[in-house]
UniProtKB/TrEMBL annotation:
It comes from Bacteroides xylanisolvens. GO terms for molecular function: sigma factor antagonist activity. This is FecR family protein. Residues 129-222 form the FecR protein domain. The chain crosses the membrane at residues 95-113. Pfam families: FecR. Keywords: Membrane, Transmembrane, Transmembrane helix.
């Protein structure tokens, strides 16, 4: 892996930490920075997710040898990182070892990668944030985007938001200050309208009782998509 820096053992710690929801905010930012370096890094992350999901999918049904499973995990990790270099032992922290023992299984001599690919999206947790009536909720998405969620609004996004895509569902009203990432556009989906941006500031309103969705752009440029057409919005315009 040409651009895998810092060292692979640290990256693996970050990935396992992400999958077990045990990363600190600083570690999460480090992982995000590493993912932004190259497509190769993002593919490595996706491969590790597939190992995790495939293993989890079979863990309840298959008996496995913990020591063998651990070695298989190390071997697969090394193959992804340096396929043409002689294998070496990775330094793994104790908690990472424990996590690997729980989820990595040895099934018919191989990891069920194809199964993992099929169930990956369904297995990832959907995170839902709601703002009660009479109050607003401020939050930062994993990619650094600032969101102000207005009263009576709800937003949901996948656990892997910001890795391969930045897509969320919105019901109600929210203000966004989107972190720019030209490789992964930011998308907001509602029943009436979809918004696609690279990096911008805008307000999106689409309550269930509203007759129509409204978008007010403060900075940047957004594309509004309905079933009939696409409209480009510029600063100080609304639609």
């Amino acid at each position: 892996m040409n651009e895998q820096s810092p060292h692979t053992d640290i990256v693996n710690d970050w990935i396992i930490g992400y999958l077990t929801n045990s990363l600190t905010p600083e570690e999460m930012q480090s992982l995000q920075n590493w993912l932004n370096v190259s497509e190769e890094n993002r593919k490595y992350f996706s491969d590790m997710q597939e190992v995790w999901i495939a293993a989890s999918d079979e863990a309840d049904e298959q008996h496995f040898d913990k020591e063998r499973a651990y070695q298989l995990f190390l071997e697969h990790t090394e193959n992804l990182v340096q396929p043409s270099v002689k294998r070496k032992t990775l330094t793994i922290s104790p908690w990472m070892y424990a996590a690997a023992m729980v989820v990595i299984v040895f099934f018919c001599g191989t990891i069920a990668f194809q199964s993992g690919k099929r169930v990956l999206r369904n297995q990832l947790t959907q995170i839902t944030v709601e703002a009660p009536y009479g109050s607003k909720t401020k939050l930062y998405l994993p990619d650094g985007t600032l969101v102000w969620l207005n009263a009576g609004s709800k937003m949901s996004y996948a656990q892997d938001f910001g890795i391969n895509e930045r897509s969320l569902n919105l019901s109600g009203e929210a203000y966004f200050e989107v972190t720019r990432n030209e490789e992964i556009p930011f998308k907001v989906h509602t029943e009436e309208l979809d918004v696609k941006v690279l990096g911008t500031k805008f307000n999106f309103r689409n309550y269930k009782d509203d007759l129509e969705a409204k978008v007010c752009l403060l900075e940047g440029k957004v594309a509004l998509n309905t079933r009939q057409k696409e409209t480009i919005l510029h600063p100080d315009q609304q639609a």
